[in-house]
Write a structure and sequence with these properties.
5 strands; two-stranded antiparallel sheet
Length: 139
């Protein structure tokens, strides 16, 4: 296996993101449209949080809705803001962080995605799926 390969080689660069002022209905739409499970939350260009699809499921009955369905009873979503539901204490990595180090972080934590940042500027996202695909390529 290659040594010291930077996470920039496997991260998603064209990141789907939410603005802190967006609502949870928009968030759910993005999760379903792009078939993703994590969305970084930004204020301007600064990353301030991460919203997961699981976060939405915790406050709603969205899991009872057919995945192909695009409309949901949004009453519960109107009771909370993105800022109230998102994770705030983020662990981030830089584009130069080694893939092995990213894998170690994800393996030791209870989340499945890391924002990739240059300072406070979001430049990508890396997920456990990205790591699995990379591992498969190695064999």
């Amino acid at each position: 296996m290659k040594q010291r390969v930077p996470v920039a080689t496997i991260m998603t660069k064209n990141v789907v993101k939410l603005n802190v002022t967006d609502d949870l209905t928009k968030a759910e739409g993005l999760f379903k449209k792009h078939h993703i499970r994590h969305i970084p939350v930004v204020s301007g260009n600064k990353i301030i949080g991460m919203l997961s699809y699981t976060d939405l499921l915790r406050i709603s009955f969205a899991d009872a809705v057919d995945e192909e369905e695009t409309s949901v009873d949004v009453t519960v979503y109107n009771m909370f803001s993105v800022e109230q539901v998102m994770a705030r204490n983020l662990v981030t990595v830089s584009p130069e962080t080694a893939i092995k180090e990213v894998a170690e972080i994800l393996a030791s934590k209870e989340f499945h995605a890391l924002p990739v940042c240059e300072g406070e500027l979001l430049v990508g996202i890396v997920t456990t799926t990205d790591l699995i695909k990379y591992l498969i390529e190695q064999y």
